[in-house]
């Protein structure tokens, strides 16, 4: 029996998985992603490393989907689970960071009512409300004080 031909490794010749993952995490979440990793340092530092290396260093760094499209997929998956509100909130904010609109997120969550049920969609919508407020607060804090052209937030 022949060994199946493996596809080329997209990580070959790339920087270390951990460094690549940290770079991708910063691109998506800024300081929020690092805070999640830091929160694991005292209890499971190896898990924190895996959290950076595998999802961000390997999967998010693959070609084929934009970071924006990957966040849409993650928001849908976490919403469908129905019990991952903390992670869903982080990824809703990440989706906003990479260009997904609030309206698109609401539509994604409404789709989940069909495939994951109304309770999962309701939980996700509640999480979205909180994430939208948090994201708006961060944008407000980041805006220059003298900038009133947007009408204030």
Automatic annotation (TrEMBL):
InterPro entries: 4CMD/NDH-1_regulator (IPR052512), AhpD-like (IPR029032), CMD-like (IPR003779). GO terms for molecular function: peroxiredoxin activity. It holds the Pfam family CMD. Residues 45-128 form the Carboxymuconolactone decarboxylase-like domain. PANTHER family: 4-CARBOXYMUCONOLACTONE DECARBOXYLASE FAMILY PROTEIN, GAMMA-CARBOXYMUCONOLACTONE DECARBOXYLASE. This is 4-carboxymuconolactone decarboxylase. It comes from Bordetella genomosp. 2.
